[in-house]
Amino acid sequence: MNEINYLKGDATAPIGEGNKIIVHICNDIGGWGKGFVLAISKKWKQPEREYRNWHKSQDDFELGKVQFVQVEDDVWVANLIGQHKIKRDEKGNAPIRYAAIKQGIVEVARLAKELNASIHMPRIGCGLAGGKWEQIRPIIDHDLITFGIKTTVYDFE
Hints:
Number of domains: 1
Largest sheet: 6 strands, mixed
Strand order of the largest sheet: 1-6-5-2-4-3
Number of strands: 6
Structural class: alpha/beta
Oligomer: single chain
CATH class: Alpha Beta
Order of helices and strands: EEHHEEHEHE
Helix content: 25-40%
Distance between the termini: 28 Å
CATH architecture: 3-Layer(aba) Sandwich
Mean pLDDT: 96
Shape: globular
Number of helices: 4
CATH superfamily: Leucine Aminopeptidase, subunit E, domain 1
CATH topology: Leucine Aminopeptidase, subunit E, domain 1
């Protein structure tokens, strides 16, 4: 059985041959300006522009949805809406929405199979969204690894 490959490095510089999908978590209010998105925007302008246009249009812009933006011949960025707003709610709950992440990862897996692509990501949902890797990892294992989709998680040095 495959396993998640953990590397120290930059998820915006995915390693390996063939098609690659970089997955990251976005919020459901159209905000783009902190966290991993800054690294994406530094390297490519299209993912931010497409995300903002998607939010503005409100066309299927909701938790669990994914927008795929091709940024190179063999690289796509997956803008996965898995975070509700950007701050903890009045009860102290983090913005992370695990069910939305699971729904989005299923869509990522579908495209990965279609493109014969590998998946690359930081520890999604565990930064500003306030999630716990112990809850994200089983989603990755269930919806990517068990289907033989090569998945690399990058811990930035």
